[in-house]
Amino acid sequence: MADRVLELRGLSKDYPAFHLRGVSFSLRRGRIMGFIGRNGAGKTTTLKSMLNIVHPSAGEVRFFGLDFAEHELEIKRRIAFVSGGANYYPNKKLAAITAVTRGFYDNWDEESYQKFLRLFALDETKTPRQLSAGMQVKYALALALSHGAELLILDEPTSGLDPVSRDELVEVFLTLAEEGVSILFSTHITEDLDKCADDVSYIRAGELVFSMPLAALREKYRAVALTAEQAERFRDGLIGCKRAKEGYTALVERGTLEELGGHVAGLEEIMVHLDREAREDD
Amino acid sequence: MIELLKKEFRLFAHPTCWMFLAFGAMLLIPGYPMYIPFFWVTLGLFYSCLGARENNDLYYTLLLPVRKRDTVRARGLFFACMELLQIAACIPFALLRYALKLGPNNAGMDVNLALFGLCLVLMGLFNLLFLPRVYKNPTSVGKPFLFVSIWVFLYIVAAEVCCHALPFFREVLDTPDPQHLGVKLAVLALGALLFALLTLLGTRRAEAIFEKVDL
Predict the structure, then answer these.
(1) How do residues A182-197 score in pLDDT, each as one tens digit?
(2) What is the pTM of this model?
(3) Which residues contact B185 (CB under 8 A, 6 or more apart)?
(4) Mutation target among B1, B63, B68 for the A interface, most CBs of A within 10 A
(5) Is the CB of B11 less than 8 angstroms away from the CB of A89?
């Protein structure tokens, strides 16, 4: 309980055309949690509701064991939310944005900031508009880490980045987690999470499907390739069976249909097949 | 609050806010509606709000360790600061107008202390009407400005008509200083009071509205 940096209980938000329904999960210190789901599943709504950027209809959000509504300022000093990259004030120099930002944090560590500038090869005389998407994310991270954020909430930080930049960021996340920083990382690029996540929370159509350690999730499912005849014969035991370039693919639960062979399912396979299964059930 | 106000000056303020301060020089124009030089500041504030929308100012600000209502309060304070700077920037030109002996203004209200008081009311009116509207829907800036500009225009027309139609305006307020100095000082003080009151009301209303807005 004590090492829980984030805890959501029954977080809900009602829009006319979308409902976030009772999302609950928790994140422990020094862990990286991937928050996955297809576009429009409710990832950003959940993150915004956590920070009261949109007003939740119901539910409770606690950071470091503190209620957000009651301890908003203290919590905001200890966390950082990065939505995409530094997509604000695109024509102001980084130095100007930093000069304003640092004033809001008593615990701003200028040495640390300079260290991250060098590490990420950021030039303060540039503007966010002059930075690539990857460098924008790095600048946002440099700001976040220079005020000692203990929890990073990242909304699609690797979307739009090339594979090399994504890999570099994943490496940064791993280093930060080793140093005790917790990361909640919303994305639909599951490949990045395969490389760094400890836990995964999967949201579909506004409802949390599961929140569990990645290792346990991998234990749970196998991905199998099937012929049309097998797909028909084993239909009842298959999860989210769908067409592939050659034949069919599906998930099976560990310990079932062993004769089909298969391999440890990756996050993308799990997400795609579970989504397919849920759509067929709807 | 100080840091938020610094942020308003360093990031939010559009360059026109500073440029328009120089438009106080329009007080030297003979035969001109003298409310207009004071109106320019509202245009600079409008451009700043437009820029803020395009620069994702709200997201940047709300993720800082600040309360939502404090961001509105800082904005209201920034509006008031810029408007008072506009007043201050007009003072030297008003004095210069007297020094150059440009004479009475035939187009409307004379440049005098009462004019400054009436312009403070104009700015307060702008704050009262604009701030709540711009926070009701932060993606819409043009419509609130158009709406408020109509009211500001009507205020200016009404004030200028009063100069011609009402004896008190014509014979007391629309006269060069230091004539009727006591009355004009009272109008200035009343204008300052109304400016503070209307700005406070506008800011409070905007705070209440913005608390309920989902971004």
Answers:
(1) 999 888 778 888 888 8
(2) 0.83
(3) B113
(4) B63
(5) yes
